[in-house]
Specification:
It contains nine helices and 16 strands. The chain is of the alpha+beta class. A hairpin with a 2-residue loop joins strand 5 and strand 6. Helix 2 (about 15-30) packs antiparallel against helix 3 (about 40-55) and helix 2 (about 15-30) crosses helix 5 (about 85-90). The radius of gyration is 41 Å and the shape is elongated.
């Protein structure tokens, strides 16, 4: 009879964990998929059989007493079956890929959800409280999430006897290999619902429409996502609720456009108002504000109204309101209006003005270069 302790390289006083650890180490070294050496397969069979005996309390007790651990069914090297999950343990630290030992719970976490919320620009500036209506899954009130009709329950699966797994034995070059898979009768739960709830059809949850109160913080922009923990759908079996993500979409405004946290708008000025100066009342998100247009305002000139823009999403303060001037030149003049302009041109010596080329406005780098050169 083989010395199984020597095969695994452990002492007779080795604990169950030490035996398992020694087997994992050798299996990672000797498995034919990893080690192509000709003798690796036989060595792997030897340590697998040793582990099969020493990891089983009954077989280990019989072996320590000098008896055949297989009760005469075969001697060492006969290729008796071992659990394929223990081989996978050596490589992945757990059961075979895609399997789960023991029955799984019917209660599972729900799926996260993403919904869109459209708001006006004014609400992005200051923030707002919104009502959000969503269609989602909630726990079934009829069965309280059990999935069974009231007064009934689940019964142990007759196929897997509550284990949630069924095992099968197959022959391979390693001998008899035992594999496990979820039970098809109970889908791995270990129990069967004999009388499913009429309301939720055994799911433990139903779909419904509900309305949430949501606080939209000031400063949000299109694409900003707000996480509402635990407000997503309830999982099967009335499992934990997932999270709800709200993606904000800010509708375009008819007057103001947003660039970062600044707001921009354009004010149209008659030629006379731009020349003489005036005061324009602007309807801002903070109420009416007076904009003083200085005499001689040119087309494209900007005026800045501080702290009338969008609230910073992180940190205090707000952006600015940038007002762009658009000077309107009259296109249709009456005879009297035309004569007045001609009189003005005479007074200004502009009866026959000669156009002249103006120098190009230098950019930032050009201005910095001139400053550096002392120009």
């Amino acid at each position: 009879m083989s010395d199984y302790y020597a095969d695994l390289g452990v002492t007779h006083a080795a604990t169950e964990e030490e035996i398992k650890r020694a087997y994992r180490k050798l299996a990672r070294k000797l498995h034919p998929d990893v080690n192509p050496d000709a003798g690796a397969g036989e060595q792997f069979k030897t340590v697998s059989q040793a582990y099969d005996v020493l990891s089983d309390p009954e077989k280990k007790r019989a072996y320590d007493m000098g008896a055949d651990p297989y009760g005469g069914a075969g001697a060492a090297g006969s290729g008796q079956g071992f659990n394929f999950n223990d081989v996978m343990d050596a490589f992945f630290g757990g059961g075979a890929a895609g399997t789960q030992r023991g029955p799984r719970s019917r209660a599972q976490r729900g799926q996260d959800a993403l919904v869109r919320l459209d708001i006006d620009l004014s609400k992005a500036v200051f923030g707002s409280d919104e009502d959000l209506t969503i269609d989602t899954a909630v726990g079934c009130n009829t069965c309280k999430g059990s999935g069974s009709q009231p007064g009934t329950g689940t019964v142990t699966c007759s196929v897997c006897n509550g284990a949630g797994q069924v095992q099968s034995v197959q022959r391979s070059f390693l001998g008899q290999v035992m594999t496990s898979r979820p039970c098809g009768n109970c889908q791995g739960y270990g129990t069967v619902i004999q009388h499913p709830c009429f309301e939720c059809s055994g799911q433990g949850r139903v779909r419904t429409r509900r309305t949430l109160k949501i606080r939209v913080p000031a400063g949000v922009d299109t694409g900003t996502r707000i996480q509402l923990a635990g407000e997503g759908e309830v999982g099967p079996g009335a499992g934990p609720a997932a999270d709800l993500y709200v993606e904000v979409n800010v509708r375009p405004h008819g007057i103001y456009s947003r660039r970062g946290d600044d707001l921009h708008c354009t004010v149209e000025l008659p030629m006379t108002a731009a020349a003489l100066g005036t005061t324009v009342s602007l309807a801002t998100f903070d109420g009416d504000r007076d904009l003083v247009v200085t005499p001689g305002t040119q087309p494209g000139e900007i005026h800045t109204l501080r702290s009338l823009g969008v609230t910073h999403l992180r940190g205090g303060g707000r952006g600015d309101l940038i007002v762009h001037s658009n000077v309107q030149t009259p296109t249709h003049l009456t005879e009297e209006q035309g004569q007045l302009l001609r009189d003005l041109a005479t007074l200004r010596g502009e009866e026959r003005p000669e156009g002249r080329l103006a120098p190009l406005e230098k950019g930032l780098m050009g201005k910095l270069r001139d400053a550096f050169m002392g120009k």
